[in-house]
Structures are given as structure tokens and as C-alpha cells.
């Protein structure tokens, strides 16, 4: 079965909602604040953040490679204080590089691109 790019495997919420939570966490927000802002249960948001944290290094490497492969003059994101933030920056950087090369890609969000690039498995235990 093919999934649309706006969803992740085994997740009810849209990739953009989950991505908003990941961005907020990378910016320093706490889980309760994020859950309130998104109107989602705290445990649901905590689960997204924990799963992403577990996969953060893999996500960072995967999307940094995508950025370097796609960008004509790649500039990988600078390292930050946390793996989580580095992984989020890599996803956004890969989206920017892809959108600059193929402008129609800019019509999708970074999290829809991440869903497509990971085949919906951004928060799955194993991918690709």
C-alpha cells in the first residue's frame, strides 16, 4: 500500500503536526507546552519526541547525505548542542536544498519531504 506523503507509518497525526512538535522541541520548548500548542495528548507528543531522539543520529546522517547529494553547492548545517536539534536541522536543510534545485518541491513542507524520503518511516524503529 502506498502512503500519501503527508502521513507517517502507524501515526494518526499528519507529518506536519509531528514536525511542528519536533521543531518546537529543537527550539527549546517542553513537551507539555508543545502538546498544549498542538492540542494533542502529552503522552502522544512525548512518544514522538522520544522516538525521534532514538533515531536522531540516523536521521541527521540520512538527511545530511540527501542535502549534499541534491544541493549544487552544499552547506551542511553546523553542529549544535544536541543530536535532536542537529537531526531537525538536517531535515530542514535537505528540504531547502531540494526546494532550491526543484522549485515545485518547495510547495511541500519539510516534514512532507521527510515523510516521502523516509517512505513514511521517519519515526519507525528501522528505515530505510
Structural summary, described in words:
α1 packs antiparallel against α2 (31-38), α2 crosses α3 and α4 (83-101) packs across α5 (110-117). The chain is mostly helical and 128 residues long. It contains five helices and no strands. The chain has one domain (15-117).
Number of strands: 0
What's the helix-strand series? Answer: HHHHH
Whole-number tally of structural domains: 1
Question: Which residues sit in consecutive blocks of at least 5 with pLDDT less than 50?
Answer: none
Strand fraction: under 5%
* Radius of gyration over all CA atoms, rounded: 14 Å
Topology record:
Layout: H1 15-26, H2 31-38, H3 42-70, H4 83-101, H5 110-117
Which features characterize this protein?
59% helix, mainly alpha, 128 residues, 5 helices
Give a brief description.
With 128 residues, the chain is mainly α.
